[in-house]
Amino acid sequence: MPPALSAEEIRQANTRYHDVAASHYDAKWGIDFGELGLDQVTAKVRKALGHAPGHWPRSLEIGAGTGYFTLNLLRAGLVGEATCSDISPGMLAALQANARRLGLAVRTAPANAESLPFADRSFDVVLGHAVLHHIPDLARAFAEFERVLAPGGTILFAGEPSRYGDRLAAVPKRLATSVAPLWRRAIGAQPLRRGDGGAPDAALEALVDVHAFAPAELSRAARAAGFGEVRVSGEELLANWFGWTNRTLEATAEPDQVPWAWRLYAYRGYLLLQELDRRLLESRLPAAAFYNLMLTARKRPGA
Ligand SMILES: C[S@@+](CC[C@H](N)C(=O)[O-])C[C@H]1O[C@@H](n2cnc3c(N)ncnc32)[C@H](O)[C@@H]1O
């Protein structure tokens, strides 16, 4: 958790950090707008809802980043008119470039989740991926999601770090840090040179994540804002340990010296373990054990 910063300082850190991260965000996180990305996003939506999704005519994404969720949902035909909001103008510029390349129409709006510039009841779904843990005042944000949703509308958030999963992920991160010099020697890479201008400010990185959630905290936040039919589930355990180990190692080396074969191994291994998590663990273990939490809920029809 960051040192005591004001909510405004956390928002500013998020804006600056993600503005700098935008240009290489897709490469760093393996964000895909092909078949793989489409399958991953639709699988997450189905998992979060607990059933096959229908069609949402008007969607709003919070913290949309470069468009991973919305652009893939548009491609899958799950949403009609899509609006993407984010506190970082740099991320929205990258999203628009991705949308142009894919031939997709999407409206973008710079916005802080706690104060949305949209009319009441103007969307059928409000969604997000890996964003709630950056928001200082979650109660205000959930109240805004409820306000801009049409009665009976859905909120759907995925990719939120669970408190327990986050603690477990510290183990592979520590191990990877200690073996990183050996690993770099094995693959023939030099240590990362600092201050190359392209990498997001490492000092800001520690400030942008302000929550890791217990499942009950997410359900409470949704209920407190008036939502019903609240559902919290978990995904990815082995895949995350593997992913964090590799990302921690990779972050210590000059990026262009990490061999392609390594990247392929890391990527394929991650997908394999994701499948193993899905088939073996996700239906058997409690949500709190996983690294990622998912939340869905509905605005009451008469609200
Ligand atoms: C981890 S990134 C996830 C981006 C994208 N959803 C994805 O999954 O690839 C978090 C995103 O949330 C945005 N963000 C952070 N704080 C925010 C806030 N208070 N309001 C709106 N967006 C915010 C960041 O700018 C960033 O684009």
SSE arrangement:
Blueprint (H helix, E strand, L loop, with lengths): L6 H15 L3 H5 L5 H15 L6 E6 L6 H9 L2 E8 L2 H14 L4 E4 L12 E7 L8 H11 E13 L1 H25 L14 H7 L6 H10 L3 E8 L2 H13 L9 H22 L10 E7 L5
Helix pairs in contact: 1-8, 3-4, 7-10, 10-11
The protein binds S-adenosylmethionine.
The site of S-adenosylmethionine has 22 residues, from helix 1 and helix 4.
Task: Describe, in plain words, how this protein is organized in 3D.
The chain has 303 residues and is α/β, with parallel strands linked by helices. It contains eleven helices and seven strands. It has helices at 7-21, 25-29, 35-49, 68-76, 89-102, 138-148, 163-187, 202-208, 215-224, 238-250, 260-281, and strands spanning 56-61, 79-86, 107-110, 123-129, 149-161, 228-235, 292-298. Strands 3-2-1-4-5-7-6 form a seven-stranded mixed beta sheet, with helices on both faces. Helix 6 links the parallel strand 4 (123-129) and strand 5. Helix 10 (238-250) runs antiparallel to helix 11. The longest helix is centred in the middle third of the chain and has 25 residues, at 163-187. The protein is globular. The model has no long low-confidence stretch (mean pLDDT 93). S-adenosylmethionine (SAM) is lined by residues 11, 14, 18, 31, 62-65, 68-69, 86-88, 91, 112-113, 129-131, 134-135, 159.
